[in-house]
Design a protein that fits this description.
This protein is an alpha/beta fold. It has nine helices and seven strands. Bound molecules: nicotinamide-adenine-dinucleotide (NAD).
Length: 246
């Protein structure tokens, strides 16, 4: 896969799946820009990547502030002249029974996992329409198919990600902009490292491939969907979960 002269933005690119996605695109010759939530973590990630000879730029817009998102995209666009791929990866999860979830917790998960995607996708669409091409990729989850037995906000947000993906795919297809999502299963990142072992072990037993996913498994799916090899694929939520069922 060759992303030479392609400008790729990855939100939540400072660690986990996002960081691995940044590396994967860079290895395939893309110009990569990572977004993170704070200046400190963004600078740290950019510095650590530099030590691995991976040179990327980092920004930390508040993804829920439309004007801030617009300003950062404008800056990137004026520097490179185009924005080819947007990977909406930043996301948070939630645990606990509904009685313990505050309305503000539910709101904050919807804010980052859904509303932020509206902001970045809206701004990216403007540039992609002008260019006559583009790819928007979203990060859904296995729970967007099955729900989960606690932490209702997270699956709710990921069902919405699928809705946004399918609808935007239909709206933007006439403009040669493809929109797809990847739905990871349990993947080996901080999000999962924070979960109790008693919860993860029995889950591995139910996975036919007998392991949890690695961030590179997900990054590879993003690479494929962003590439010309997927030029006839849009509106798809691709499961990357080792589950052997649709
Ligand atoms: P992670 O916690 O390791 O990384 C999350 C990323 O999101 C970080 O780069 C962080 O900077 C960014 N982020 C967090 N809060 C933010 C905010 N308020 N504003 C901007 N950025 C913010 O998580 P991960 O496991 O790498 O997850 C990445 C994506 O994959 C998420 O959308 C998550 O829902 C999804 N996912 C993960 C798993 C899993 O098992 N790890 C499974 C399914 C889906």
């Amino acid at each position: 896969m060759d992303f030479e002269n392609k400008v790729v933005i990855v939100t939540g690119g400072t660690r986990g799946i996002g960081l691995e996605t940044v590396k994967a695109f860079y290895e395939n010759k893309a110009t990569v820009i990572l977004f993170g939530s704070r200046e400190e973590t963004v600078n740290k990630a950019v510095e650590e990547l530099k030590n691995e000879n991976i040179n990327v730029e980092g920004y930390y817009p508040n993804l829920n502030n439309y004007e801030e998102v617009e300003k950062v995209f404008e800056e990137i666009h004026s520097k490179y002249g185009h924005i080819d791929v947007l990977v909406n990866n930043a996301g948070i999860s939630q645990k606990g029974p509904i009685e313990n979830i505050k309305a503000e917790d539910f709101e904050s998960i919807m804010n980052l996992n859904v509303n932020a995607l509206f902001n970045t996708s809206k701004v990216a669409t403007k540039y992609m329409k002008e260019q006559g091409q583009g790819v928007i990729l979203n990060t859904s989850s296995m729970v967007s198919k099955y729900g989960q037995p606690s932490g209702v906000g997270y699956p709710t947000s990921k069902f919405a990600v699928n809705g946004l993906t399918l609808s935007l795919a239909r709206e933007l297809a006439p403009f040669n902009i493809r929109v797809n999502a990847v739905a990871p299963g349990i993947t080996n990142t901080d999000m999962v490292k924070n979960l109790p072992k008693e919860m993860i072990a029995p889950l591995i037993g139910t996975i036919p491939l007998k392991r949890i996913g690695e961030p590179r498994d997900i990054a590879n799916a993003f690479l494929f969907l962003a590439s010309d090899m997927a030029s006839y694929i849009t509106g798809v939520v691709l499961s990357v979960d080792g589950l052997a069922r649709s």
